[in-house]
Amino acid sequence: MVLAVFFAFLLTPLSNLIYMFHTDNSRLSMLLFWTALLAFQHWAGASKSWLGLMLPVILYLAASWTYENATFLIFAVPFFVWPIHLNRGQSMSDRSFALRLGVGITAAFTAFVLVRFGFFGGGAVGHRSLMPSFNLISSYVYNLMLYTAAPFREISWNPAAWVWACPVALLAAALVFKASRDDSLVTQRLTDWTQSPLYIAALGMAILVLGMLPYLLAGYNPSMGFTSQSRVYSSATFGLAILVALLFSASKDKLILFGTKVIAIVMIGLMAVFLADLRNGWQEAAARREKLLASLLRQVPNVKPGSTFLLMDVQSYVSKGGMDRGVVFQGVDGIGEFVRMLYGKKDLYAYFLYSKNQVKTNTEGEWATVSPAGLTARGSAVRPPIPLNSLLILKRDGINLVLLDRLSTEDGSAAIKWNGAQSIHSSPDLILKTSDSKGIVDRMSIR
Known about the structure:
Blueprint: H1 2-10, H2 12-15, H3 26-45, H4 54-66, H5 77-87, H6 94-119, H7 134-153, H8 159-189, H9 197-218, H10 236-247, H11 254-299, E1 302-303, E2 308-312, E3 316-320, E4 323-329, H12 334-343, E5 349-353, E6 368-371, E7 374-376, E8 391-397, E9 400-404, E10 406-408, E11 416-418, E12 423-425, E13 431-432, H13 437-444
Parallel strand pairs: 2-5, 2-8, 6-11
Antiparallel strand pairs: 1-13, 3-4, 6-7, 8-9, 10-12
């Protein structure tokens, strides 16, 4: 149990998500789900009444409507409550208990589906197939192994990371070996099949598979990176934590068990080092963002309402070894809000523009379209075509932004489809010269 808790906090697919908060609320949904599970367990050990099912069902619905990663975990609940039913005495027959639990789970999941697809119209994410392809499933498994192995492939020697990780490893050692003594006493009393390694492995595998299932059905392609990419494992990793902990604690031989737990503690320490070292990427991203912000304000100290910023190659990351470790700018929707806050004006717009060498194919709608009627860019679909006389075009050059006079078909560098238009121009008359640039930089910098 103790090992599983430490692995749940420190396994890379889940732990790196603490550096970035999304509107997907994956942490909040999991908090609500585990609270729902505790409520199911309390119900199984107490009244087992029909009315008593209301609280855990409501908590599950709150979790699944918050974010989809907890949706199918409801079907893992029997693994957690059946041992409690068996060990608390037979106040109710197994058949009656299974019936009530099954009805509660079915009702909860049915209510989720009806509201999700009837009221919310299926939500923001579509479901492409009831049977994910073998290639998609295998890519999930392969990337999960890569994420899990990451802390041991390249060990950081950053002193600050080790200062944080060593106490974590020592705490893990103290709790793990204390729990080992307590477990030996418990094992003498609990000998039923629900305490067997096979049962615990089935529980962990159920969470692992059911946690990935919403993303597999949505057809999400997993990608590697330590910013937000691993959110497809945001619930499945709890199952992985149980399986890994079981691997290091299943032996009956005391000497082997001692050795495996030492190895597990070393792994916990290295995972803690890796997690702490990721902070450096976010610090570097913040420094780059501040410099880009200052550069933008030098080019455009202030701006007229109604202006639209086209920011070329500004969506960028801090990478190491080909893996993203920090976000400079990312959100397609968020960049517009950032510009509005920056200048303190509601009637401003901003969109990312990409170089052709960044996005050779238009798989996610990255290419802009220009016609005499106006411009459309990634994220601008909710607006009419953007007037061509309202543009300010800026391109990232290292840690600086350069105000471009124009982009054209002759230039050919931008990922733009030209439909009856040959070029777009920045409108310098939109720029106002008065601004408290330093005050804005200080206000918008987050440390």
